[in-house]
Amino acid sequence: MAADNRVEELLKRPLYVYDLPQDLLPSIALKGEDQPIAVETPENTPQTPSDEAQEHAIATTTGCGLCKVSFGNVQEQREHVRSDHHKYNVKAQLRGNTALDELQFTKAIGELDESISGSESSEEEDEEGNQLTALLKRQAKISQAAEEADLMPKNTAKNPLLWFGNPTLPENTSLGVYRALFTNAEQDEPRYLAESLKKKQLTPVYPQKNNDGKAPTPSPHIFMCMIGGGHFAAMLVSLAPEIHKKQGGIEERQARVIAHKTFHRYTTRRKQGGSQSANDASKGAAHSAGSSLRRYNEAALEKEIRELLQDWRKLIDEAQLLFVRAAGTTNRRILFGQHEGQVLKQNDPRLRGFPFSTRRATQSELLRCFKELTRVKVSQIDEAALAAAEAKPREESKPSTPRPQQQKPKLSKEEEAAILHTTQIQALIRRSKIPALMTYLSKNSIPSSFKFQPADVQQNFRCPTSLHLASNLDSPAMVLALLTKADVDPAATNGEGRTPFELAGDRATRDAFRVARHELGESKWDWEAAKVPTPMSRTEADSRSERERKTAEEEESNRRKADLDRLRTQEAAAAALRVTKRGGRAVGGGEKTAQEKREEEARGMTPEMRMRLERERRARAAEERIRRMQAGNQ
What is the C-alpha to C-alpha distance for residues 77 and 73, in angstroms, rounded to an integer? Predict the structure, then answer.
């Protein structure tokens, strides 16, 4: 009984792939490769089984008649063959559908994170009546069209999740790890995947004060980046979890970001969709002021991104894996096109796509993706029943007499409405549109007990209700609104037997449940069954959040001050050393250029120190530009 309780406690907390409990590791083993466990549809897969066939669909000239684009050389043509645009048109042609040129494809699919994924800002938009309905119906139609065209691959290739079992776990319990976290060599030897998983375990580290002048200890890390709609975000994240001690001595694991950077420039054609370069390739160069500005911004964005990648070259070369999302030919050319100092290459065996849907390219989205990639999925389903259900269609397909091809059962109006409501509600929750969600629920008379459909989808299996999804996304404001305004039951359980509170990944989200318990009262719900701890007032929660914010700001301020002091000391020591080597005379030979000064300042520094120095230099330059602009306006 004690062992069962210990295992149950292990499964209640989030499991991190690179720091699994010692109770699970010794006997962990890979389950069958042909696994019947449903998983979420992956996106942005870099390669599909039809790649080789698609290679032969290209003409021998440096152009693609199917997609109506031309190229300057064969290398660009080959990169186009591997793009989502070409794959979509090949499949559309095979189905008898019309192929899309680059402008049409980018407008319909490539830039969806600009028009549908939504803004990361906290401003609430006034979406009501026909505007809201039109937006949501458009999203549902685009998603359906993409799925029908097989643009988003289903489980036709390999399952994106590898499922592991352990004798100490219940027989129907499986642990899922994304296949993309294993190297190609490891995936080629499935028998040793369990051993590979054991070797990936890393010892947690504690934050370094950086007051001793020493560079941070290097650790295994991965590189992640996204580009689309003029937005670019990149991040280097350590795989070793970092332990932070909170009030009361509680230890909390957090991701350690080695470096991060985001860029945004106006490159997309508002209301018309698509990038300026895609429009130029399709219709010829436009001559408006807006088009000129967009072309300039595209070139500037390309320059900024490539310079950043060159600055990070050493860390990127040392990264274990590279996760990249780049939709459209223009974006892929920026990252993978041949140029001087090229860092990312299309044939790099470490290159991966994100095996799940992603949103706009921001730092917070990259952190969310890192959390999704490295968190172990726990599934509790009856595999024997699923295997029997899967074997039945195979037995029916064996008779020698041919049978007419089975068609999918037609959905009833109620089922179609439930699926449409599911798509729309989930989109609003992911975008944190609280007023719009409340309006939609009220206008369509959707009950608080509504569950997402279809129920057999992995995402809906783990998050069957709106409260489960909001908690899993770590959205405290949405959680509080659903509890206090929409009367969603916090005691409802998902397919794994977990309540919404048990899916919360940070303290702010957990505090939202406690605040709701305080405001709604003990008689409203069975809070004990919902696993929600003691109630907490909103004032207490805000006060604690404010204290933590001030503490974090103070720590960051001290860290920056220490870094600047260390950099100044190192610069002074380097200057003194140069004078000494020159026999006590300062280096002469005329005035140095700005580039030579920057190289001299950065000499002898670690890549991380160089990045910090460059950030400070850019901040000072921006402040100086703003000062001059203000002085000129006076």
Answer: 7
Least confident range of 41-45, 369-373, 584-588: 41-45
Peptide linkage before 454 cis (omega within 30 of 0): yes
Q: Which two tokens stand for residue 51?
A: 């790649």
Rg of the Cα atoms in the chain: 27
> How many helices (H) and strands (E) would you count in the chain?
24, 11
**Amino acid 242: pLDDT:** 84
Is pTM beyond 0.90? Reply is no
Sign for the CA dihedral angle at 146, 152, 154, 156 comes to: positive
CA distance 597 to 553: 32
Token pair in block for residue 421: 């409501």
- The tokens describing 607, both together, are 């890549």
- One DSSP character per residue, 430-496 reads HTT-HHHHHHHHHHTT--TT---SSTTSHHHHH--SHHHHHHHTT-HHHHHHHHHTS---TT---TT
Range from 156-160, 190-194, 222-226, 238-242 carrying the lowest mean pLDDT:
156-160
pLDDT bracket for residue 439 (50, 70, 90): very high
Q: Is the separation of the CB atoms in 179 and 321 below 8 Å?
A: no
User: What contacts 24+ positions apart, CB below 8 Å, involve 146-151?
Assistant: 146/109, 147/41, 149/88, 149/91, 149/92, 149/95, 149/97, 150/91, 151/84, 151/87, 151/88, 151/91, 151/109
What is the phi-psi region of residue 45: left when phi exceeds 0, alpha when psi lies from -120 to 50, beta otherwise? Answer: beta
DSSP at 405: P
Average pLDDT over residues 239-261: 81
484 is written with which tokens?
């206090």
d(CA 437, CA 124): 11
Longest dimension (CA), the chain: 97
The DSSP symbol for 120 reads S
Specify the amino acid at residue 528.
E
Residue 397 neighbours by CB distance under 10 Å: 9
Alpha-carbon span 345 to 325, nearest angstrom: 14
